[in-house]
Amino acid sequence: MKIGITCYPVYGGSGVVATELGKALAARGHCIHFIAYSIPFRLGHLQENIFFHEVNVNAYPLFEYPPYTLNLTSKIVDTVKFAELDILHMHYAIPHATSAVLARQILASEGIHIPVVTTLHGTDITIIGQDPSFAPVVNYSINESDGVTAVSEYLKRETAELGDITADIEVIPNFIDTARFRPMQKDHFKQALCPNGEKLLVHVSNFRPVKRAIDVVEIFYQIHELGYGVKLLMVGDGPDRAAAEHRARELGVEADVRFLGKQDPVEEILSIADVFLMPSGSETFGLAALEAMSCGVPVVVSDIGGLPELVINGESGYLCELGDLEAFTRAVRRLLDDEDLLASMSITARARAVEHFDTDIIVPHYESYYEQIMDRLTSPV
Ligand code: GMT
To answer: What's the 205 CA to ligand 1 centre distance in angstroms?
Structure first.
């Protein structure tokens, strides 16, 4: 198949999923055309059957707010025609699904028919979809897509609750390359960061307020105060990074907390972690937690959103009540107090990633979904 994929190319879960999907589909012989305003950061080297089409946003004096959605629409139209795409896969409703639906109409007026699949990732529904200044466009773009997928049952339910969604939603969970994200021996690296055999807690996010990065520092402080030999690595960047750094200084733990900024490859850091912390206020799936699990790191996460579909409480990690920092602290202590438990949970976390969320298990679902949607377009009703 020739597949056009649009995503946010920057740091963030939806862009990671879209890029990894494109790479996996290319490895399975499909021809992938990424259409975005810059090269997706996880793409790496372009290869024979992966192409990139940059959306150019022109500055025109009249446009105080350049209409990116329309530039994207034009680029989609252009790419469908000249690369003869079979299907479009949009990640995130706004503005990607909107542009694709408009592009499909333009193309239809020229006798070219192409189906649009939209994958909902989260904040497009849980935040933007609820915002009255976007809601009608979100609803329309989803309903007009030929196929809609969501990354968890939770997100499917949330989308249905928007009220005006008539589209059938297929749940296809996120996935992980378990060969890349795997436990690795990185003793020198661990020794450099934890010279006295300290346990290493890790948090990875885009530091948006919903990730509650400051809570990570608070939990770490509790553990530290109890006398545990621990270090904390904060990976990623975003709006709450400065506040989290400030809080670490206020609490006097800054010497044991390192803010690394955006890191790729993150699997090297995860492979030296002992416990992964995700106290998020909302998480439709929790891809960063899956990355940690795949590296054999037990996760301590909020009991919200799609996380209970990913994490089996007491087996691959712990689910804690949202905002209950004492519960998070207790869960981390339980792991740090018991080497055998930590080791067995590490194995179970990895097994859950491999057995349920490996690329080779999930990507074929997308392939068969594309086929189903394309058949629907070509077969008479
Ligand atoms: O988590 C973010 O802030 C980024 C966001 C995105 O759309 O890029 O992530 C969402 O999609 C990810 C991939 O499907 C999910 O793993 C995240 O749970 C989800 N984030 C939220 O729901 C807050």
So the answer is: 10
